[in-house]
Amino acid sequence: MAVQKAPREGFSEALIRLGHQHEDLVVLDADCAKSNMTNFFKDQFPNRFFNVGISECDLVGTAAGLAIGGKIPFANAYANFLTGRAYDQMRISVCYSNNNVKIVGHNAGTSAAQEGATHLPLEDISLMRSLPRMTVIVPADSLEMEKAVEAAYYHEGPVYLRVGKLPVPIVTKKEDRFQIGKAIKYRDGNDVTLISTGIMLDETFKAAEALANKGIQADVLHIHTIKPIDVEAIATSAAKTKRVVTIEEHSIIGGLGSAVAEVLSEHCPVPLKRIGTQDRFGVSGKMHELLDFFELRAANITATAEKLVDSALIK
Amino acid sequence: MQLASERKEYLQELTKTIRRHIVKMTHHAGSGHPGGSLSATELLTDLFFEHMNVNPNEPDWEERDIFFLSKGHCTPVYYSVLAEKGFFPVEELMTFRDVDGRLHGHPCGEHIPGVDASSGSLGQGLSLANGVAMAAKLDGKPRRAYVMIGDGESQEGQVWEAAMTTAHFNLDNVCAIIDWNKIQLDDYVENIKGMKDFKAKWEAFGWHVIEIDGHNLEEVHSAFEQAKTVKGKPTAILAHTVKGKGISFMENTHKWHGLAPNDEELELALKELV
Asked: Which keywords describe this protein according to UniProt (chain A) (predicted)?
């Protein structure tokens, strides 16, 4: 069984490593430093850490000012409050002003767990994706998170990085090449394309195996960068398999499913099924319970893919 | 340092020129915000010509002082001051709000030399100033961050989130200028959502407050000078101003918050600015 590690741990470690290498890296938090694990950066670099208190709008604006002052700020807060409350600050002070700010949304998706609906970010990708100039990155696990943090630092321009709180299996490999905007192909198959983002890669791998046992070979694409999305990889795979399933730990409205639907409808119109949370709020529950509750399991992916393959065959 | 009399005369003439730009630009565009531009004229003119350490030939110079127009709608005065200071040609002012120009209705940080951040959604400027001030302190640079905020704008919650941050981090290199013209888009501020004891609010938030007549160049000048000497806390200059100042029929009315003069009104206004 794969090693489990919280994505926020990989985030924190990468941040400190980069902090040692780059004087211009500064970190801001809005009173969640312990939870977001930015407190470890603070311990190492107290002068380059700013806790602005419980004020997400001010957090994002201050980060933009630090960028104007020549720094590369990582602004951290819980994903919901950050993307919902400070959307306008990201729009005007960050994106429209073209400031090099890294926005880090924590407690992502089902990892907000028992905090319940107020804390479960199921709309953050949708919001961030709509902002001109914003790059949106949703890593699969702690290992890929480390690469994403580094890529975000070196990328010139605003980035939204989605970070989960609770341990999830490390399913990516050290040698997997992480490049912003490029999908990673994890499996070759001709019967159906499974496109996942974030921590759903784990369940997607399991589903691909289950499908293979039933004689259905899946192409597996991991989209860690939802914007800019890898049009070529998606269209090429869809042209081959003729049917696509998207899997995300986020609302199917505005997230990965929507982004892939946009690509397919313009470049390769084939049947698509979107797995994700529906048009609804979350509930309280342990993370594994929430994944069951929202039907985000390998079994759900397998059933959906099978149905799609069958229906296409009948035609 | 007091304002020398020849500088005062020079600035007085300059404020008249800038007021003429303001009415001509809004007349050209057929829209825009003359009222809050006219109230801020002395403040921004003295700031940019007597205090700000900037180089129009090198707008992105790393040692420069930084100014943010948090009340982003007052571009007529902002662009006029920047053009007169030499950041871009004065003639360009007559492309204000043109679809093929860069002098948009609200400032765009990316396109206009001398403008460091976009604004227009109210309440965001002080946070930006704080960030710049923090970076300057980290680098041990003497850079100062200035921000102009409206009194109506101070109804935005972010202003007060940011005001707490400035004081908490002892950012004495931040100077907020409050253009206290008492009028917002719909009505007098007092009739919409009043500031109550505005000065006490800033003081309670941990700021050094200087209350002045924002149209008296000597008072304006001294306030900026004093702000530079205050250590350990940020300074807020509470400037009592008159919305529409300098043009009799525009003064003290919300009607001219966001209204452009027609041909006849332009002529009348220019006559008052000779």
From this structure: Thiamine pyrophosphate
In which order are the strands placed within the sheet that holds A25-29? A49-51, A25-29, A72-78, A102-106, A159-162, A135-137, A225-227
Closest by CA to A245, choosing from A213, A211, A294, A214, is A211
Q: Comparing A4-169 with A184-314, is the CATH topology the same? A: yes
Local structure of residue B217 (DSSP, 8 states): H
SS3 B193: helix
Q: Could you check whether the bond before residue A169 is cis, i.e. omega within 30 degrees of 0?
A: no
CATH 3.40.30.10 fits A184-314, yes or no: no
pLDDT per residue as tens digits for the range B229-244: 999 999 999 999 999 9
How is residue A199 written in tokens?
Answer: 């921590």
Residue span of the structural domain in which B88 resides = 5-272
Distance of alpha carbon A315 from alpha carbon A311, whole angstroms: 7
**Interface touch B161/A71, C-beta < 8 Å:** no
Q: What share of chain B is helix, strand, coil (3-state, %, to 5)?
A: 45, 10, 40
Q: Look at the domain A4-169 and name its fold.
A: Rossmann fold (3.40.50)
Which backbone phi and psi does A84 adopt, to 5 degrees?
-80, -55
What is the Cα–Cα distance from B145 to B47, expressed in whole angstroms? Answer: 12
Of A53, A60, A97, the CB nearest to B118: A97
ipTM reported for the complex, 2 dp? 0.96
Place of tokens 């997607």: A204
Number of CB pairs, chain A paired with chain B, less than 8 A apart = 119
With a cut of 70, list the residues of chain B below it in pLDDT: none
Domain boundaries, chain A: 4-169, 184-314
Cβ–Cβ gap B127/A61 under 8 Å: yes
Q: How many domains does chain B have?
A: 1
- In this prediction, residue A301 has a pLDDT band, given cuts at 50, 70 and 90, of very high
Answer whether B157 touches A (CB < 8 Å). yes
Catalytic residue among A9, A13, A56, A262: A56
Q: pLDDT class for A305, splitting at 50, 70, 90?
A: very high
CATH classification at residue B152: 3.40.50.970
Query: Shortest CB distance from A47 goes to which of B138, B161, B168?
Result: B138
* Beta strand ranges found along chain B (DSSP E): 66-69, 145-150, 174-180, 208-213, 235-240
Q: Do A53 and B168 touch (CB under 8 A)?
A: yes
